[in-house]
């Protein structure tokens, strides 16, 4: 038997789970939903999570992080979600942006951004999706140029350096809370119809950056935005990594994104299951708890099976990423995201059914999970695109798109 196959998380991860669960329960779903419905924010929870070291648990310790891996960060988001506080920006700021900067950023970029990402004092958004380039990233039109007359420091001069950024992004999370945005653009000198991406750190207060909120039906204090980049002038050091390595850098962030999206969905599933089983144990009809009826017990048990399986797939995908096995991690991360999203949709639906009419009452907090769980099938990658990826890369079937 291989000694590397071990499903015991160990004392450190168990202690981390317990500590994060305590923090989540301190705030709870009531706090989260109140902030969402009153136009508030979760800055207080975010700051406390950062102070306790939870937000940067995956980042290098020399930059203020915990020195752990994506497995630990996914655990943090899962436990907060299970307590009713799924912080969407954890997927973006420490997971996508933090991972890319830690792996590919210069020493100056790491020193500038990573300590703040780790302790929560800096939040970074991530911008890739465009109106005409959702799943098809080759259609990205946001462009970065090397204009003449820039001095490489973001001002006019004769050095010929710097960058000029133009374009539009949609469905960008948390721009109102972010200090900067990690923007995926295509380089102007790339061949037409091909994706030559490059990543730029753009402070949100840069001239030419504007954000417009997108009204949604999702009950969450973390909002979505359309972001416009109109002749945004950036210094040379806004570019992350090498301009010819953009694809590798991009997927170094997208695989963690899928795992974290899965952890988000798993936390929501566990919250819905806890509410459903509590109600099924205590709600009686004709002197019998409704959970004694197989018509409710069996669907809930089936959902629990899906939750357990999704959790195992998240562990595998995070482990592969932490081991640097990027190619194998791609299929595992997509599989984890698919499994967790399906578990979330079915568990939330069954939780509402278990509550009957009370499932739509704000008092029980179950109906609020409906759109939150349903979006897991869509973002950050749709279930259909995941199935196409698995069919092509794991089943070796002809590409369908």
Secondary-structure map:
Elements: H1 10-37, H2 43-51, H3 70-82, H4 89-104, H5 107-119, E1 124-127, E2 143-145, E3 163-173, E4 180-187, E5 197-203, E6 209-214, E7 224-234, E8 239-240, H6 246-282, E9 284-285, E10 288-289, H7 294-322, H8 326-355, H9 369-374, H10 383-393
Parallel strand pairs: 1-4, 2-4
Antiparallel strand pairs: 2-3, 3-7, 4-5, 5-8, 6-7, 9-10
Helix pairs in contact: 1-3, 3-6, 4-5, 4-6, 6-7, 6-8, 7-8, 8-10
Unreliable residue stretches: 154-160
- Estimate what percentage of residues fall within beta strands: 5-15%
CATH architecture of the largest domain: Up-down Bundle
Largest sheet: 8 strands, mixed
What pattern of helices and strands is seen along the backbone?
Answer: HHHHHEEEEEEEEHEEHHHH
What is the overall silhouette?
globular
| Percentage of residues in helical conformation | 40-55%
Write a structural description.
With 401 residues, the chain is an alpha+beta fold. It has three domains: 10-119, Butyryl-Coa Dehydrogenase, subunit A, domain 1; 124-241, Butyryl-CoA Dehydrogenase, subunit A, domain 2; 247-393, Butyryl-CoA Dehydrogenase, subunit A, domain 3 (Up-down Bundle). It is 48% helix and 14% strand. The protein contains ten helices and ten strands. It has helices spanning 10-37, 43-51, 70-82, 89-104, 107-119, 246-282, 294-322, 326-355, 369-374, 383-393; strands at residues 124-127, 143-145, 163-173, 180-187, 197-203, 209-214, 224-234, 239-240, 284-285, 288-289. Strands 1, 2, 3, 4, 5, 6, 7 and 8 form an eight-stranded mixed β-sheet that branches. The chain has a two-stranded antiparallel sheet with strand order 9-10. Helix 7 (294-322) runs antiparallel to helix 8 (326-355) and helix 8 (326-355) runs antiparallel to helix 10. The longest helix is centred in the middle third of the chain and has 37 residues, at 246-282. The chain starts with 9 loop residues before the first helix and ends in an 8-residue tail after the last helix. The model is unreliable at 154-160 (pLDDT under 50).
